[in-house]
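dude i think i finally got it to work??
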Amino acid sequence: MSTALEKFQRLEATALWRETPDAQRRDVIVSLGDATLVIKDSNDRALTHWSLPAVRRLNPGERPAVFYPDGDPSETLEIGADHPEVVEAIEKLRKAVANPGQATGRLRKFILGGSVAAIVALGVFWLPNALVNHALRVVPNVTRQTIGQEMQTHALRLTGKACTGPQALPALDAFQKRLQVRAITVVPSALRDAVALPGNIVLLGRDAVEDFEEPDVAAGYVIAAQAAVADPLRGLLESGGIRASLRLLTTGTLPDTLLSSHIEELISAPPMAAPDDTLIAAFEEKRVRLKPYALAQDPSGESTLALIEAAPFTDNLPEPVLIDRYWVALQEICDS
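look at this
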């Protein structure tokens, strides 16, 4: 699977992209990234990213091929008949990433089935924690990413459609890369801070972006959300019980009802907090100043004094979180 991804990542094609039904189609370049389809302008600036598991085809078997992101058929990408290799690659990869158990064939089913049988034979079937631990060890990253995307789809029904101001998308892409997060989605309501999802995906409330002068605070919300939950998939499986873990092991999927209820709980509940030493280490690893985030939690600094005093960086960073023009653009991502 990884070899195929590396091969297809070298493919690019010209295409026509329509962001909304009222918008004009525009010439773009489409390329395949790490489990994503990247749509760029002629200056090689990313306009948007589509997750491969969420890519759907509007006209199977027809040419030109028309694709759209799951849940939003109004946004379309048209690839002409002169790029059949790219269309074929998208078809193969989106099906393989969306159905990892099917893509790896009978061998994976045999291995996963054998793993479950072994657990039962060892007498740990009735121990939910042991089953969760086993699932977390063997579930591949593409499955985690698919689950994270599905949870995000459920979340957007609560928060409203993701903010996608076109001028801010290059800044969002830079922000994701700087924090080493696969995808950060800014949502317009119902969330002030951030929520970490499986597959290295983070939901970030617009307030965290708009209400502060420094990008370090928004970055801090992302880092804190991920530091508070070592593995977001664990909480999901623990909520679903033994049946959820068994279903994930045998089919690579989880029930929509579980995904929906769990993301609703994450958004409505107070954010979980990581221990101070864990949070400090996380900021140091990401090379982000901790003091601006600590003061955003308590402007007086009294309750976060320990964090401020132990902050790994003060005024100087190895590299800024975002350059000024990107930060200004990112703050306007929900304005359009």
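The beta strands are 12-18, 26-32, 36-40, 46-51, 55-57, 65-69, 76-79, 183-187, 194-197, 201-205.
im so relieved honestly
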